């Protein structure tokens, strides 16, 4: 259970840290 919680925490941290950048990259790629 702890491993899953840690993995989810890391995923959330990645999404929070790089989410905006990924969205911008996705937008530019989709628009092009």
Name some characteristics of this structure:
32 residues; mainly alpha; pyruvate; Pyruvate dehydrogenase
What does this structure look like?
This protein is mainly alpha-helical. It has one helix spanning 2-31. It is built from one helix and no strands. The chain is rod-shaped, with a radius of gyration of 13 Å. It has one domain. It comes from Photobacterium damselae subsp. damselae. This is Pyruvate dehydrogenase. Keywords: Pyruvate.
In terms of topology, how is this protein built?
Blueprint: H1 2-31
| Low-confidence parts | none
* Averaged pLDDT: 80
Strand composition percent: under 5%
Contiguous helical run count: 1
- What is the number of independent domains? 1
Helix content: over 70%
Q: Total number of β-strand segments?
A: 0
Q: Distance between the terminal alpha carbons, to the nearest Å?
A: 42 Å
Largest sheet: none
Shape: rod-shaped
Helix-strand pattern: H
User: What is the C-alpha radius of gyration, as a whole number of Å?
Assistant: 13 Å
Which structural category do the helix and sheet elements fall into? mainly alpha
Brief sketch in words of this structure:
It comes from Photobacterium damselae subsp. damselae (Listonella damsela). The chain has 32 residues and is mostly helical.
């Amino acid at each position: 259970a702890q491993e899953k919680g840690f993995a989810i925490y890391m995923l959330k941290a990645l999404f929070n840290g790089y989410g905006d950048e990924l969205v911008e990259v996705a937008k530019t790629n989709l628009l092009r």
